[in-house]
Structures are given as C-alpha cells and as structure tokens.
Amino acid sequence: MQQLSQRKISIIVPVYNSEKHLCKMIESIIEQEYSHWELILVDDGSTDRSGDVCDEYAQKDTRIKVYHQKNGGVSVARNKALDKISGDYVTFIDSDDWVEPSYLLRFMEFPYADDQIVFQGYFMDYVGAVAKESTKEIPKQGRILHLGAILGKMFATPIIKLHNIRFDERLRLHEDHVFYYECLKYARQFDFSSYAGYHYMHYGEQSLSRRLQSTDAYFLASELLLDYYQYDITVSDNEYKRFCIQKFGLNQMVMGVFSLYFSSFTKKHRLDVLRMIKKHVEIFKQFYVPNSLNGKLFLFCYLHFTPAIQDAIFKIATALLGRKFKTRLNLK
C-alpha cells in the first residue's frame, strides 16, 4: 500500500473564457492542505485573458502545467489533459468553481486501490444579483448511478489508463455521465465520504444553463445512456433503475423532440425523428412515468397518435406556450 504522502493527485481543469473566476479556482488548489498534486490547465482557445492567467500561475508554481489549444470543446480539453497525467488519482474541477482547503486531503482518507472511485459531497452555490443560496449534496452508497457528474469524485488512474477511457468528443451534453459510466464498468472499490468541499457555482450570468441544447446532442446522449442501462450495468433495484433510465435516458430524448420545435427544422425532419424514436416504445411504457405537463403530453401523444398527429400537436403546444414551454423542459 502506498504511503499517504506518496500518492499524487492529478487535477484536470478545462479553461474557456473564465478570466473572471479563474484566479479563485487556482488559488483554492494552491491552498490545499494536501500538497502532492499536479494541476493541469487546458486553455481551450479562450478569447479573454484566461490563457495568460494560467501561464502566470504556472510560472510561480511548478506543480501547475498549462496547455493551449484551438477551441475544441470541454471533452477535447479534458482528453488532452488525460494524455498528460502522472498522478495515482485523477479528479476534475471546472474553471469557475472552487474547492475548500481540505478537499484533496479528505479524498485520501481511504486506502489506495487501483480500481477505486472515491465520492464526496458538494455544494451547489447560486449567486444572483442580490442573494446567494447554497445547497449541500452528499452521495449515498447504492445510489451511485445518478451521480453522473464528475465533480466531487476521484478516480484511480489505472481505471482510465488501462481501459483507455476518454470523453466522447461528439457529445455536447452528458459527456461527463458517459465518461463516469465507462469508469463504473471497471471500478471495483467504491468509497464514500460525508465531507463536502466542492463548490459548484451557478452565477447570474449562467442562468441560461437550462437553454436547449442541439437536437442531435439530446438524441446522441440519450442513446448512449440507455445502452449502459440495458447492456452494460446491472441494477437489481427496479425502482432505482426506472429512475435512472427516465432521468438520464428518456428525459433527454423527450427534450430532444421538443427542441425540434424551437429550431428551423423542416416538417420532414421532425417526422423522421418522431418515427425513429418509435423503436423505444417498450422502454417508454416500462420506465417513463412523467410528473410534468410537458412529459405527460409527450407520453400520451407518443403512445396513442401517429407521428403526423404528434407533430401537429407539439407544434401547436410549443407555439402557444412559447418561452414558458421552453423553460419548463426539465421533464422530471
């Protein structure tokens, strides 16, 4: 077993136009009580001073490494960093978030295993024009499938290196979930900490995080996530399986359908999509139990009407409700 002081943590941070919050994130790493780390910053073609800020910190601390690339997206940036890591563990931080001084140290409370994932809690910090609100989330054993975001987790490097796990660069949605599920396939040791030291920031200017992603992004993410639940991951708790399939597979598909009506797609394209998703009718019947009005409307039309009638109803509904309909597309 490695001694605590010998275990090195690689911290991966993709950076894109984060100048406003970047210093706070980097300073929070420098101030860590656990000092055996490397910070890999990948500047993904920033157009502000983010790249310069990264370079300035790297000149002051040899543990900080910076790579610059043309803008390719968060998955490309993270993959570049994964090619450079030298630590026993890997953890990921977003450039506008920050972590408390004990964050890395509390990960190290558990004995090292080369097939290990360590979980921590995190804070969701909402910073608006007037008030700040924070909620705390703690991971629970036996409920790890819906913890798909990579924040608050530390992965043993051999899981990633031995199986050549990378972020899917085609994805613009749920790329972290897909990466996480790939790691789950090979991990055998799961350790849970009740500590929460990661602050996931929602700033006022980011309030559009619910904005509609591209239709292709929704369908690609949903297809990949459904494959994991059907073929790669065994879930003995049927209710929990239903929850995960609905939340991370079917909901994305429904959001993809409705996003068709807020874009300039032709009627032919919309009908092609509605016909294509008919192949999932059995899994919708078995696992999709919506609570929202939008979800209920979709399910009723999906099960009872032809694609042509569905298209007419969805077009009218989205036209009548407009922006209000858009903002309610978190189809729980």
TrEMBL record:
Annotated keywords: Glycosyltransferase, Transferase
Domain Glycosyltransferase 2-like: 10-129
Catalytic class of the enzyme: transferase
CDD domains: Glyco_tranf_GTA_type
Pfam families from the UniProt entry: Glycos_transf_2
Matching Gene3D superfamilies: Spore Coat Polysaccharide Biosynthesis Protein SpsA, Chain A
Gene Ontology MF: a single term: glycosyltransferase activity
InterPro entries per record: Glyco_trans_2-like (IPR001173), Glycosyltransf_2 (IPR050834), Nucleotide-diphossugar_trans (IPR029044)
Keyword Glycosyltransferase: yes
EC number from the UniProt entry: 2.4.-.-
Keyword Glycosyltransferase: yes
Protein name according to UniProt: Glycosyltransferase
Species per Swiss-Prot/TrEMBL record: Phocaeicola vulgatus (Bacteroides vulgatus)
